[in-house]
Amino acid sequence: MKIVIKYLLICHVLMLAACQDVIDLTVPTEPARLVIEGSINWEKNTRGNEQTIKLSMSTPYFETNRTSVVTGADVKIIKNDDGTTFNFVDQGDGLYTTDVFVPEMNQSYTLEVRYEGALYVATETMTAVADIDAVNQSIENGFDKDELEVNIFFTDPLEEGNSYLFKFYRQGDLLPELAYFNDDYVNGNDISWWYEKQEDAETDKREAFAPGDIIEIELYGISKSYYDYISILIDQYWNGGGPFGVTPVGLKGNCINTSNPDKPAYGYFRLSEVVRRQYTFE
Amino acid sequence: MTKNQQSRTGTSFVKGVFFLLILGLIGTVGIAQERYTLSGKVTDRLNGETLFGASVYLKGTNLGVITNEYGFYSLTAPAGKYTLIISYIGYEEESREIDLNAPKQLNFELKELSNQLDEVLIEAGEPERALLKKPEMSVAKLNIKTVKQMPVVLGEVDIIKSLQLLPGVTSNGEGSSGFHVRGGAADQNLVLLDEAIIYNTSHMLGFFSVFNADAIKDIKLYKGGIPARFGGRVSSVLDVRQKDGNNKDFGLTGGVGIISSRLAVEGPMFNENGSFLVAGRTSYAHLLLKASGEKNSISFYDLNLKSNYQLNDKNRLYVSGYFGRDLFNFDGSFKIGYGNMSGNLRWNHLFSDKLFSNLSMIYSKYDYELGFALEQFNWQSSINNYHVKYDLKYYLNDKIKLDFGLSGIYYDFDPGRIVPTSETSEVNAMTLDQKKGFESALYVNAEHTLSDALTVQYGLRYSGFNRFGGQPMMTYANDQPVVYNSTLGIYERGEELGETPYDKDETIASFGNVEPRLALAYQFSETSSVKMGFSRAAQYVHLLSSTASVTPLDVWTPSGKYIKPQLSNQYSLGYFKNFKDQIFSLEIEGYYKRVANRIDYIDGANLIGQNTIETEILNGKTRAYGLEFLLRKNEGKFTGWLAYTISKAEQQTPGGKAGGPGINDGNWYNTPYDRTHDISLTGAYQLSEKWSLGASFAFQTGRPVTYPNGQFSYEGLAIANYDDRNANRLPAYHRFDISATWKPNRKPTKRWKGEWVFGIYNLYGRKNAASISFGQNLDTGENEATRTSIFGIVPSFSYNFKF
Lengths: 282, 803
What we know:
The complex is a heterodimer.
Chain A: H1 2-16, E1 20-23, E2 34-43, E3 51-57, E4 74-79, E5 85-90, E6 95-98, E7 108-115, E8 118-127, E9 132-138, E10 149-155, E11 163-170, E12 177-182, E13 190-196, E14 214-222, H2 224-239, E15 256-257, E16 266-280
Chain B: H1 3-29, E1 35-44, E2 55-58, E3 64-66, E4 72-78, E5 80-87, E6 94-100, E7 104-105, E8 108-110, E9 139-143, H2 144-149, H3 159-163, E10 169-170, E11 180-181, E12 189-193, E13 196-197, E14 202-203, E15 208-209, E16 216-222, E17 236-242, E18 251-256, E19 260-269, E20 274-283, H4 285-291, E21 296-312, E22 315-330, E23 334-350, E24 355-372, E25 377-394, E26 400-420, E27 430-431, E28 435-449, E29 454-468, E30 472-476, E31 482-485, E32 490-493, E33 496-501, E34 507-525, E35 528-539, E36 541-544, E37 555-558, E38 566-579, E39 584-601, E40 617-633, E41 638-652, E42 669-670, E43 677-686, E44 691-700, E45 704-705, E46 708-714, E47 717-722, E48 728-729, E49 733-742, E50 753-761, E51 771-776, E52 783-788, E53 794-802
Parallel strand pairs in B: 1-7, 1-8, 12-17
Antiparallel strand pairs in B: 1-4, 2-3, 2-5, 5-6, 9-16, 10-11, 12-13, 14-15, 16-17, 18-19, 18-53, 19-20, 20-21, 21-22, 22-23, 23-24, 24-25, 25-26, 26-27, 26-28, 28-29, 29-34, 30-33, 31-32, 34-35, 35-38, 36-37, 38-39, 39-40, 40-41, 41-42, 41-43, 43-44, 44-49, 45-48, 46-47, 49-50, 50-53, 51-52
């Protein structure tokens, strides 16, 4: 019941906003770990041959310089049924790319990363996504009835167990926003998803949508295990340690360190079909 | 521990109890002298309220008794002439010469000590001092008058906040409901309001307690040494009793505060053979907020009802009720409502001057509802219980008093349902499995005076729980609802094999536990004693809450196929001393408590709308130990106490059947209720006839929480990675409160009595962290630690009146 959580978070922010302040705090620091951002995105109706994998190192929590890129690693993806191998080329800036990838729906793939003598391995399946039927705007939906929001319409397939990841980015903003969704309670229904930016009057951190704003919308099909991972990640991103949030936990992705199983890499290897839309507010 | 082992220790204990009982009987049968029983009731002279815990004793002897919950006493003594002394906290002591030459019935009406300053305690009576002879230990009894003296926040007397100033009782921080006793969780407290189970003790998420001080007579908190007549929770019992209502005169009490107001009416009925009390409270802050243009609102109200009717000397009927509700409204698009409701019908019957009985029939309910206007559906959840209990007290002789009885509770759990509120709603209707269970208990307890110095209380409770069918149960491959994925190092749902249907008359699971209770007091001098206690308790219903603090939206669930009953063993040892002519008392207690079958949640557990809770939990155990100090000054212009507790509370949750190392690699970790140090200092000072002052200081070690230990970039965001569960702590909690009460001139003849109460909560404005959350600043992209603190400095005033 993710809607419930969403509302609880909003309640808590509303009720307590007046008593929140940023403080200096000492937190523990564990040794740096490899981070694998193995996101294979296959846009609907494209070949999906150009793919990028990003490697970096984790940093202390309050470190402001997060550019800790990893070069010199050996990165490849193997298609599991026939052993086809796609090698990713080190670009020297933490990015590893290929332009010969061949995505296949519901096909299982293995990612192998060799770095500083350790071998990291992850296996995942390419997951399809429903198409976006329509995008429009309104003001009466959403939490704040005076602000603009964008509505995304799509149809959940009849079979159960579809999971989705949304990525929203307003041009000009510093950061994107992620949201997750699955078809529990709504299987097979026509879905409308609203996305609104609430004005934060106190900090001016968030500004509501205004006419002329351009928003980029991405809807990904994701596997059940990635849903489990990304839902914890997103919940903790918004409410890590907050009063109504669950006790935060260490994130465990699927990139296993075969040399040292106690130190898996952060991040995840996933393969998703994605639909992209751009919408300009009127 | 297996079931066999349990019952074996149980039977040997039963034998022991019977042996002791027989010993006691033989010891008293041989005495030839004629004995007569004196019995009756102790009440307040002005309003006829029965007094619970008044002491009735024969001067110059060791014969004495304490009145029960209904003010009844029974005392047996050899024939002869005596001086009978009746005393009770805050009341004038009464003595009467009696010639005990036949069974006698004597009722006493005690007069309150001060007719002018009726809310102020000038001299504490027996119950507030260390009771040396009674084996009762680990008990905190607070008279409502003591509570009313403490500094108050937001102009309302708060019972729960007052209890938190006692050793061994802590809060989970501001803005959180519930309280914690000796490292226990909030759901391990049995909270009773006139015997009805209360599932949520707070209004407005902990800002107010659900107990309206105007309707409450007394409060007793059992932290350990729980008598055999209570059961069903492993940590503590909070027994709150409502007033019966004035049976002599009509009265009106009330108060007007900034956030809420209250009013109580009481008076005689049935020609003074009965009385009634109706008390109500409501907040009106939401009206003010609305007027100021705020779209969101929070409000609460509650209503207490009580009435009793004396049929004749031997029979009396009581009816009591409680109804409370909280409402949150967020601009009409989202609403939350939750509350307790209870009703109780009781029948006191006196079989003889030695045998007192009470039959109770109780209904109680807790429910909440979330309304989603936009998505067009409501989410509802409730727990109902029907409770019948029969308790008897037999004053066997001057050495032995027996309590025995039985109890049955039928539970009906409705964990959650979705009700679409329109045809066009995108959300499908859904109902989680309804769960039903029956908790039964049988108990006997003896308070036995073995010698002048040694008193023992031994008892046995047998409790059982049947989880009924009428719902399907999921079965899992290898009987593993949770499986350890050793590749990824995470716990996942087990593989579902299918549902097994259970008929309504089928039993899904049943449990039985023998719960021995033992306490002894040895008074080794006029002013000091040592006490020891052991108690075992079983708990069959559990609150599911994976958040740091209990919220009103958490759901109760019964034991069954996958969730076992919690079992606790608690050992305690204490030293009690009265000194300086009983002006001061000192209580030192140590305890060790273990709880088996305490569940904890796997990483990323999803409890909301979860039909198969078993896939989200692992079975663990907890241990808690500590040392408590309580120094009180009971008399004089200045009264108060200093309480200090040093303690530890930990949990271990191995993988068990699911495999793998368990939570935190199977190591012991702090529970969220662990507080190394807990200090409180509370004082009241009677400055003049018109002015009295109160102050309190509280300090607690910060709550165990989980902090990040690193970050990484992912999908364009900075993501925190978190440390081991509860491996870190919030900053320490402390605050200082003061209050002043002004009672303007009033003539004793004038019925209207008013007082002004001025208070400042958190005088030095400490921003105590209720929580610290971690996230990325959306403008700068930097990570930040954000402290949420609920109360800054909060001044308040209220006007209280009595007519």
